[in-house]
Amino acid sequence: MKLTTLIIFSVIALLATSCATKPPEKRVDQAVEKAVETPATWAINTDEENKDVSAQWLESFNDPILLKLIEEGITNNSDLQVTAGNMDKAWLLAKQSGSALKPTADLSLSGTRSGRADGGFSKSDVTVGIQVSWEVDVWGRLSAGVRAAEASAQAAQADYIFAQHSLGANIAKTYFKVIEAKLQADLARKNLEILKKTMRITQAKYDNGRASGQDIALNRANLAAAKEQLVTIEGSQRDAIRALEVLLGRYPNATTEIRNELADLPPAPPAGIPSEILERRPDIVSAERQIAAAFNATDQAKAARLPRFSLTSSISGASNSLSNILNPTNLAWQLGANLMAPLLDGGRRKIDIEIVTIEQEQAIANYVQKALVAFSEVENNLDQGRILADRETALNEARNQSAKAYYIADLRYKEGESGLLDTLQIQQQVISAESNLLSIKRSQLEQRINLYLSLGGGWQINGE
Hints:
Layout: H1 2-16, H2 25-35, H3 64-76, H4 78-98, E1 104-115, E2 121-136, H5 141-207, H6 213-248, H7 274-280, H8 282-303, E3 308-319, E4 331-340, H9 348-414, H10 420-455
Antiparallel strand pairs: 1-2, 2-3, 3-4
Helix pairs in contact: 2-8, 3-5, 4-5, 5-6, 5-8, 5-10, 8-9, 9-10
């Protein structure tokens, strides 16, 4: 009768597992939709065709050196390795949490030997036992814990992917900064040579009484300033190279070789619609998975206030000899069921629910903030693309007109029709315009990178 009752109780407990809390994915989706107001289109009109933003786009820069550097950085960067370790650890914890749903078995082995007062031994006893236990997940507490761990692991994986994207973007932007610094240094050397040539002309005119000591001093001052500018730019170039080398996981000795020209500006990527980046950007995916983990943690805490059911079974044997331990006459077995219901815990479980509820609200707020930041980054980068294009047009015009003015001023100075100061001022306008154009070109490349990053575009190389 007792065994029958136990079996019936066990069957009822097993059937009750169907009442366990269902996965809260629908609640997560509803919370996300309610929390974030997503516009239908971007405020900045993109006038684009419907294309895939996730396409392999790094090749569009047509720079094999850049591709190799990004591959090297993803392989060797220490910060990325730490993020990868966090992801691996999170998945191991998720796998570990799943073991709570499975039965556990423990083996015990003990032996005793008793002796007499005269120093002899009277007998030996050997005991072997196996105990199996299984907590029946009636209310879904264990399942909720597993789902929470899996959602946390998915968030960690998304964080790792976003860290890869961010590292690739930083390598590319730093790489272009190095190239720009190199080109700016070349431009500074060109300016220095022009000033040296002007100095020779001025010296000759001074020797012939056609130039003043003021002209000589002014030219020498400009030469000194140009030399100082070149030293500063060369130092900035080395700093940029060292920053790139750190990203690559190399020793920062400023010896990395790079190209001698900036890449051509690739076509702008399609921006799509705002709702797409909520599903595509890894950092937003991570925030959404954190909400799922929080919802499951809440279910787990609530279920912890309900009774727990567990089944236990054991088989043991005892004998005065290990060879006889498995003899049926020496074996005994037990089957039991346990019910444990919380009575008094000083309010601990209630506070646990309050804590996870707060964490759930924090997860939703974090998602909202990340979504707003993502929208802002896309809008800013789309706007920046237009601003930089307009600035480039204006700077090209300024450079061309300054070059014409310098050509005329240089002829007039050589003929003695204008002063040195006017000529030098116009010359510096030309150099400044060329320098600004270099900066604009590098900024446009950086804008493309930032736009792809903000849109959640793919960063894999050659489809890997």
